[in-house]
Design a protein that fits this description.
Blueprint (H helix, E strand, L loop, with lengths): L3 H8 L6 H25 L9 E3 L2 H5 L9 E5 L5 E5 L1 H6 L4 H25 L6
């Protein structure tokens, strides 16, 4: 869990030591994916949660600096749904209230997109 000082430093663009960046990013990635899975399961849609992954996740998981590049969480199916999460969000989620709200809005957007895809896939739908 990042301390308040670490969150403030990250938000102001200060780099933390690599030994702090890597575990914070890992924690955030896992927490965001878990939140997405939980919310998907609450929809009662038949979704294969095994197809949820971070695009190029292994590549950036071990990056030792904060990067100004959004990361994609993908629900990989025939018509993929993905959300974009800035590195700062991964590092500070869920311990920063504002970032937590932004992450949850992106997850909500992804869920709405999945629901829309399922609706349009139903027989007789007009989508």
């Amino acid at each position: 869990m990042p301390s308040r000082e670490e969150i403030a430093a990250l938000r102001s663009g200060v780099q933390l030591p690599a030994h702090r960046i890597i575990p914070l990013r890992s924690k955030g990635m896992h927490a965001i994916r878990f939140e997405f899975v939980v919310r998907l399961l609450r929809t009662s849609l038949a979704v294969d949660t095994l197809t949820i992954y971070w695009d190029k996740g292994h590549e950036f998981l071990l990056k030792q600096t904060v990067e100004d590049e959004p990361r994609r969480l993908v629900l990989g199916r025939m018509h993929s749904v993905y959300g974009e999460f800035p590195d700062l969000w991964l590092l500070c989620y869920p311990d920063d209230g504002e970032i937590k709200q932004l992450v949850e809005q992106e997850i909500d957007r992804m869920i709405a997109q999945v629901e829309k895809q399922y609706e349009s896939a139903q027989p007789g739908s007009q989508g």
